[in-house]
Amino acid sequence: MTIIRRRMALSLPVAAAFAAAPLARPAFAQGARPSGQGAPANYPAGYGEIVAAAQREGSLLIYSVMSPENWRPVIQGFNARYPGIRVETLDLPNTRDVFERYLAERGTNARTGDLLATPDPAGWLQLQARSEILDYKSPEDDAWPAWAKPIPGVYTCSADPLVFIYNKMLLPDAQAPKTFAQFVERAVANKGPWRNKITSYGAHNSGLGYSGNYAFVRKHGDQAWNWFRQLAELQPRWERSGGPMTEKVTSGEYVMGWFVSAITFWPRLNDAARARVLGWNFIGDGQPVIVRGIGVPKGSRNVNAAKLMLDYVASAEGQQAFGRGGLTPARPDVRPGEGIRHTFSSISEAIGGEQNMAFIDYDPKMVTDYDSFLERWRTAYGVR
């Protein structure tokens, strides 16, 4: 059975297909004050009605693919502002699982997530096509550029890169690739020792794998397919999530990985022992960046609490909290520092500008091209 991470025990009915999911740990911020700060003073008149309704609801259930480490500073900040609302997160192992679980529960009128946060543009587009997204405009709306508000009711909670990671004992920093072209050159030159020892998400078994590969191919065209065919000669191994990749690179089972979720990887570097072993680089000639969506589904039973959390995440304070949790703040006025490793702006600066990014965005062709793209990807890598 797939292991699912939770922040606290849930005494809520779910769809029968997921009834066996394991229980979780408490998510309340330690030492939350009995009366919080409340909504910002510049929020519109009438927002207090949303706050009051959320307090009556008293709880919030979030479906995401982020870890407890990512959520912890956000929940602490939210609890300080609205201490009367019990926050729970169900952290699923794969981007597709967020929408599949929600729709399964929605179809049986069972208790489901109140707020969804996941880096799966294709899934968001499909949810939009089903008219399942609440068209909610946040009071923080004016602070966000148009690209960060791709669908009515969906905001960008982070803009997270997919990076190279490597074992420094097997691949010294000086030899670690900083572009995909360098990576392929190094891999081909080390075809023997690196065979079966490089890893990534599979486009065939991960929504993130599909969207990351699609965005990279959209940027590089036939050159990307040529690179993929060269890597296929090393017989890469495909994982469904960043945790196993990081663990196996740490142990030396893998030399390196590509298109690895930085938000899964970066918090591991807080462990000094791991930091001595693990290295990473941006992908300077086509840096995949996940536009991670967050929105309130129409099946939400605690819709007001969900609005409060969405607004908090969209605020500068909420973005900084996600940054301290290892995500990459997308809001333009948030910069690195005070526990924030990178922001969208600093990544752009590090790789020489937005023109060197491969955005995992909300292109409808990502949905319509799925079958043909996946077949070509399988052929390039010899995956059946």
From TrEMBL:
Keywords: Signal. Residues 1-29 form the signal peptide. InterPro entries: SBP (IPR006059). It comes from the Bacteria. It holds the Pfam family SBP_bac_1. SUPFAM superfamilies: Periplasmic binding protein-like II. Gene3D superfamilies: Periplasmic binding protein-like II. This is Extracellular solute-binding protein.
